[in-house]
Amino acid sequence: MNRAPSEAVFLKACRGEPTPVTPIWLLRQAGRYQKEYRELRSKVSLLELCRSPDLAAQVTVSAARKLGVDAAIIFADILLVLEPLGLEISFEEGEGPRILNPVRSAADLARLRTFDVGALAHVGEAVRKASAALAPLPVIGFAGAPFTLASYAIEGGSSKDHALTKALLHRDPGAFRELLAILARATGAYLSSQVEAGAEAVQLFDSWVGSLSPDAYREHVLPHSKTAISLVRPRVPVIHFGTGTAAFLEDFRDAGGDVVGLDFRVELDRAWDRLGPASRVMGNLDPAVLLAGRDAIRREAKKVLDRARGRAGHVFNLGHGIFHETPEDDARALVDIVHELSRR
Amino acid sequence: MNRAPSEAVFLKACRGEPTPVTPIWLLRQAGRYQKEYRELRSKVSLLELCRSPDLAAQVTVSAARKLGVDAAIIFADILLVLEPLGLEISFEEGEGPRILNPVRSAADLARLRTFDVGALAHVGEAVRKASAALAPLPVIGFAGAPFTLASYAIEGGSSKDHALTKALLHRDPGAFRELLAILARATGAYLSSQVEAGAEAVQLFDSWVGSLSPDAYREHVLPHSKTAISLVRPRVPVIHFGTGTAAFLEDFRDAGGDVVGLDFRVELDRAWDRLGPASRVMGNLDPAVLLAGRDAIRREAKKVLDRARGRAGHVFNLGHGIFHETPEDDARALVDIVHELSRR
After folding, report:
1. pLDDT in tens, A181-225
2. Phi and psi at residue B61, in whole multiples of 5°?
3. pLDDT tens readout for residues B261-274
4. Which of A1, A39, A223, B304 is surrounded by the fewest CB atoms within 10 Å?
5. What residues of A are annotated to the active site?
6. Per-domain boundaries in chain A
7. Nearest-CB residue to B171 (from A210, A287, A292)
8. Residues A89, A168 contacting (CB under 8 angstroms)
9. B146 with B187: CB under 8 angstroms?
10. What pTM does this model have?
11. CATH number of B5-342: 3.40.5.60, 3.40.50.2000, 3.20.20.210, 3.30.460.10?
């Protein structure tokens, strides 16, 4: 097992190289669907967990080992990056996260602080600890994409329709551009700090980008995602994941990610054809299938693998985060099924 | 103004015939963004409003007149059709609707009552009254599509991710099929009753269909939408509207609607090209634009019209329901702008 890290099947697939099995990991693979995680969270808050390198690493490592996946993703919250900018975040149990001083105008922008990545050193430390524990299994770093972060900053929390975000985009494109530029630089620096700490790949999450029209994505969002991705140093594979991207997949690809993360709303083969043969893709089982029992899991996982047709450059994953109601054993079963069905 | 109803620009566009201006109406054009509506609702509940043919017609007529749109849509709630099947619905103020006895198994299905369209005669009566008041302006009838209705019936209310719905679909496809078949027949009968009462077009709303993978749509949903549409008698134009349909627009078209309603997540011209030149389309301005002021409204409405390039068979609309925060005057302004910019 003393292979060099770059021989990990997950990283080979990210580079488009053939692998003996299709690598797999699961979006939100450490989280509330796990008994061990729920027990820990009954003792510490989400912020306490995120800010403790030991606990964040422990949760990361434990989930990867239990599942038998081919990569771990560092446990952190997408909103951590907003705090060093001066946004006050409240994570009340039972509610979603809330931003107490949302950004809704040029005046709000003016009071943002200069981003200091040092404030997030605990995330790098967690990456370092998780990598040491799991090697040669790769650890993935991650950050929210500028648009998704902006949507939280503007709405003041989660939102069903992102009405305020899009209203600002259309009413004051200059202020919107400035906010996204700030977030793109912060994201680039944050991802780089995780790579420096040992992350062998990073993922940029654009969870809410599907609330945009293709025109708005291209004009107001794409340039900033591109900036964030281009700032990742040293260079490791960048996974660019978004949901609701079906209508502008080609533009999404053009942001520059090495691997395009597909949600479950597209057919993997048709999406891959649109992206081009040199592309690498991640996805895209509907996480709801994990609530439907082993027969359905095997049947639907096989459909995804059949669409991939064994092409090099496929990382198996869910097309969205795992549901809290998922039986832990069935998540593990999916990993085994994908390894079994894809063995070449 | 004594033109025959079939000369209405909205109906001509639905038939793919050239029109002197692009017709427009707005999804949820009667609703909470209007002062008059809010005043009425401070006195009567949503169910009281829906069950009173006089009040439902009044709200329908008033919105259409105030906006200057080219069609009215009957005011009703998408869930009304579930009650005659034996589902108990609660509309508490401030929460979304709730189904008190959700359908989650074959056993739950067995206790559904035979659908009697007579229980919804008040909707037909409202259509009759609104049509009489507005003639020759056409009144559109509507119903939820089988999948969207099933998602409420299964989840017991609104849902962010439709996890239970999709779990049932994958775990027990037979029970899911039976539920959708029941809903398809009910929907067909309900839409027909509205046509008989004077609706000159009907719309089938599949609001949540974007939570499905293309495979799941094709296999488990499309056949039932097709059945519902095929049952509409006498035959009038059927608008088939869905959101999140970008990845399976061709399948969505194959359900048989005369006009395909596009959400704002697709580019109107690219979508139209995929649907084919004989298709008619409705859409697709992002309703968030109505929160961004007149300059943005004019600029973004022009983009949609530019993509339509004056082709016959375009009904202008929002790509999703109007937001509660929309200034009434700006909704009216959009209607005027579309008429002005599209005059041929």
Report:
1. 999 999 999 999 999 999 999 999 999 999 999 999 999 999 999
2. -70, -45
3. 999 999 999 999 99
4. A1
5. 28, 32, 41, 77, 152
6. 5-342
7. A292
8. no
9. yes
10. 0.96
11. 3.20.20.210
